[in-house]
Amino acid sequence: MNQENQTIYRTSSARTGKMLAIVLGICIVGGVIFFSMWDYWTSYQAPVVAKMAGETEHAVKPGVVTGKHIESNLKFIESPDFKTFAFNALPGEEGNNPEFKVKSGDEVTFSVKNNGKSFHAFGIVADPENVNNVLWKSAIAAPTNPIKPGQGGSVTFIAGAPGTYYYVCTVPGHALQGMKGSFIVE
Amino acid sequence: MVLELQKPRPVWQIMFSTHHTDVGLMYLITSVTFLFMGGALALIIRAELFLPGSQIIADSMTFNRIFTVHGTTLIFLFLLPFASAVGNYFVPIMVRYKDMAYPKLNAIAFWMIPPAAALIWLGFADFTWYATPPYSIISAPGPAADMWIFGLKILGVSSVLGAINFIVTILKCKHPDMSMGQVPLLAWSFLTSSLIVLVAIPTFAAALLMLLTDRLGVSGFFNPAMGGDPIAYQHLFWFTFHPEVYVLVIPAIGMMYEIIPRFSRKPIFSHSSGIFAFVLLSMVSFSSWAHHMYATGMSFTEKTVFMIGTLAAVPASAMHVFNFVATMWNGRIKFATPMMWAVGGIALFFSAGAGGVVNSAMPLDFQTHDSYWVVGHFHLFVMGTIAFGSIGFLYYMFPYITGRMYNEKMGQVHFILAFIGTVMVFFTQHVLGLYGMPRRVFDYPPFPEWIAMNQIATTGAMIIGVSMVIFLINMIHSSGKGKPSDLNDPFNLGGKYYWPYEAKNPHH
């Protein structure tokens, strides 16, 4: 690139100005969109949040409330060696983990009493291996604030979409040790 | 070697051209614009931390959004495009080819950046540039988080396309008379960093898709409530982004290899050791990713492996530093602006590397994990080394691009202020971390030591801010009104430059 026989073109003020105008123009247009929509971009939760809360799959459909009311009592009991947990009676005995059948839209009341020696909590879940997602606000107490021995509680809720669900002790591990029963919504 | 103007053309012709210098110019303008935008966010962050409590930012979520976009912008929209700009300008010239191997692909790789940048900036996500689950899955609000994921996805594709282009240009399009050993070190740096990109980026691209499907609730790869493992994301993320550190630093070292021999008026001390160190660095970059995760409960054996893998980067880095020092030794050094930035960058590279060596020891890492030490350490690398090398190279390219000379005095003031500011911010942050201040906090308890050190850091950041304003004025003014430069010897170094790529192809 010999300068003697080649014209050198150098950037001029006009070209620099044009370049700046383009860059600033993009920034100003972008800035207007940016500030006018600042809150919109953080306005909704990821779809997974609703799915994890069970609100989409098992939700109560509006307008299906039947007006029928069902009441039931359950007792938390434990085997003497603490290896088996159950509701009402130990496995093999009469009345162990009774099965409930209700209609979608029925109003259900559960009254529970802790007849055992450890802490328990109640809830209805879709998957007994995942006791964190209690459906339909059916929880009585919680693993962080459980029902103490001798105490009890009750809850009233509306059964949601048809399917097979489980009433369980929501304290981790207890459902796997037997504290679960079927709750069938038709 | 006028890089911008072969002949005067309308601006739109430059914008939509596929010629390597035009695409390089677009990369350059974009990246420098984002340098200022990301830097402005940094100043807001530092101003907020000047005192404990909430001063100028209303709530912690806004603060999180600001530092997320600060990090994402400066890494993906300043450093990477800046390296691409330099590569676009210099690699084809250095391998003596008329253009990049795939000019249209080159332009496509550039034009993916503006939409990605728009997604990142408009959304302003709040989950830090790590996007670590489970927060990024179940708590980060949309659509900002999804926009960030798509933006990064596009940038990943852009990087891979750029990397393919550089590799093919260097390996297949170099002049047949030129052996690989004669390819200049700047081009070698692009070859090695492009190879890292090709191997590393797909992992993160996969992780981003998994993050998106996890957010939609159709999968649970990283969602503990659905049986997933958040630590798996960290492995995938760091398998990409530890090598990515080298993707950023290798071109910056390559730029210093361009500047230092010129301004020392000596050939590079050892060309082959530079090549060897680049190749070595690109290999060991894959052996250290889990050193970001010592505190996640890995076994002692795993930690030992990654500790040794981390230390393996030291010899290669030290070879570069020795090479620089030996090149400058006994040279007739001219401390013009580019040389000052390069030498400052080497000094801070050494400091950052020393901190990294200390930090790779697991016992200390447990002390410094998630503290301001980490912030100080990696900023010293990205700002002190990579940005210093890049800004120095921008000054070096300036006369070739515009045909005009920048203002030397303003350039030197810029360097001195930026150097003082960088030391004040990031050295202080190391100590602040040892005093226990956690990173990513919006407010902190009013311990006198913490307040004092935060105020030193904020003052330093403001000094950098002032220097950057000087830089901006210098660039804008000089590109229109600067005095015409002598394109054969813009820096008045006298004699012949050492142009390895013109050895068989002198001024024709």
Quick structural overview:
With 186 residues, chain A is an alpha/beta fold. Chain A is built from two helices and eight strands. In chain A, the strands form two sheets. In chain A, strands 2-1-4-6 form a four-stranded mixed sheet, with no helix packed on it. A four-stranded mixed sheet of chain A has the order 3-8-7-5, with no helix packed on it.
Q: Can you put this structure into words, describing what you see?
A:
The complex is a heterodimer of chains A (186) and B (508). Chain A is built from 2 helices and 8 strands, in the order H-H-E-E-E-E-E-E-E-E. With 186 residues, chain A is α/β, with parallel strands linked by helices. In chain A, strand 1 (69-78) and strand 2 form a beta hairpin. Chain A is elongated. With 508 residues, chain B is mostly helical. Chain B has helices at residues 11-15, 20-48, 60-94, 103-111, 113-123, 135-139, 144-172, 185-216, 230-264, 271-284, 300-311, 313-328, 337-359, 362-368, 372-402, 408-434, 448-481. Chain B is globular. Residues 498-508 of chain B have low confidence and may be disordered. At the A-B interface, helix 1 and helix 2 of A face helix 2, helix 5, helix 7, helix 8 and helix 17 of B.
Structural class of chain A: alpha/beta
Mean pLDDT of chain B: 91
CATH H-tier superfamily of the domain at 69-185 in chain A: Cupredoxins -  blue copper proteins
Q: What gap, in angstroms, lies between the N and C termini of chain B?
A: 11 Å
Strand content of chain B: under 5%
Low-confidence stretches of chain B: 498-508
Report the CATH topology name of the domain at 69-185 in chain A: Immunoglobulin-like
Helix % of chain B is: 55-70%
Radius of gyration of chain B: 22 Å
Secondary structure: number of strands of chain B = 0
C-alpha end-to-end distance of chain A: 86 Å
- Number of separate helices of chain A: 2
Inertia-based shape of chain A:
elongated
Instruction: Note the run of SSEs of chain B as H and E.
Output: HHHHHHHHHHHHHHHHH
